[in-house]
Sequence to fold (494 residues):
Amino acid sequence: MILNINNEHLRHYAESLCQMFLGPVRFADDSDGFADIDISLTKTANGYKCMAKSNGVCKTFEFDNSRFSFLKESDVEKIALGNAFYMLGAQLYHKSPPWGILTGIRPAKFILDHQSLGISNDILRLLLSEAYLVSKENIELAFQIAKTESKYLSHSIDKTVSVYISVPFCPTKCNYCSFVSCATKKLSSLIVPYVDKLCGDIKSRAALIKKLGLRVRSVYIGGGTPSILSPSQTDSVLTAIFDSMPLCENCEITFEAGRPDTITDQIFDVLKKHRIDRVSVNPQTLSDDVLKAVGRNHTAAQFYDAYACAKKHGFAIINTDIIAGLPSDTVSSFKSTLDSIIALYPQNITVHSLSIKNAAKFRADAKKLISDTATANECVAFSKDALIKNGYLPYYIYRQKNTIGNLENIGYARIGCESAYNILMMEEIHTVIGIGAGSVTKLVSSDRKKIVRIFAPKYPYEYLGISSKKPLYSDMDIDKEISDFYCENYFAAK
Fold:
């Protein structure tokens, strides 16, 4: 697709709008079969006017900013562009995305940020409805989640951080997966040296956290599949955390066991030894046919066994993940999956919408998958109704590019069982320090206005230093950047 736009600083936003209607299209200098799109934006007395044209259809929209004078000029530009493009897309592609022209991944953060500026909820609802074209149902969903999150965010203080620990290994890689997760036997041989280095990095990063006078509010051990580690390796990682990290009282620690085919009594024995009370056991679907179609090499029966194992060990919080929009899944089989999980009554249920990214095996069929949205829409709508009726409330939300139906991912929880890590990480309220291959450290300033991301070496062989490719950051670089950031954005101001 060729996208011609007279305001280059808005190109990324315009491309996001294109992908919202067309799925994972690529932009180039030569046409690839899609109609070209021309966008022209001009300033007016009280706002901006935009013309969007493609395939013989031209739409023009002028946004008068008189009622929303608190908006930044860049936001006014996006609203004018977005409305013109939305009208164009609705006519050409017969779609009316329920999130309108709101392309950010954090709808609840949009509300919380504007509330912090003193903008009333009535004005915010009007802004989202009339300017951003968000559906009434999604506006109320975002407000409900923002209300739940605010209870957690009000307790966050500058002297806390969260920690993400990466275990990027899986027994096999699912066809929809885009995470850094190594599944071959050759790469699995790196697990032993990886765990040794990871434990060393946990201890050194813990020393830095202490030196900066910080405490750890939450820890998330994710992947990959952390339960692929042996019991002794799991014990080593957890011992490094508890022996070295300056943990807050009642620090939340989550172990994403994940794949049911890796979960054993021995792994859960180690978790209970360390008094970990929050685990994830993730089926994604309880249809064996769908599991096979997406390359997820376990069965529904193995999930039930793993879940029973978690219940037997007495974990206070069990999370399960499912995905709407998986290839070969139907509305009927999705409903059966959700009903069966609700019957188990876990404390958390996360409903993801299928997102196809560059690294996924399904990438070749992405355009077909993204365009086939009716099933996913019905599944997501059913999940909202069914979960709320059964005592679950939505507590965090995020959106991704190339998601089927331009839908969202929502975490539901029984009251009081929400994950602090998910909220703190998603709403960027304080620093999250990443440890391990593929992890990202996100540094957040005291006024929440500055965010710096530091990317650890992506793959285990780079992280271990056995690759000829020089990583963007070394361990010493990461430590120095964290220290410099806190000196500049916290200590200097005091």
User: Anything to note?
Assistant: Residues 73-93 form the longest helix (21 residues). The chain has two domains: 1-96, 153-433. Residues 227 and 257 are 5 Å apart (CA to CA). The chain has a mean pLDDT of 89.
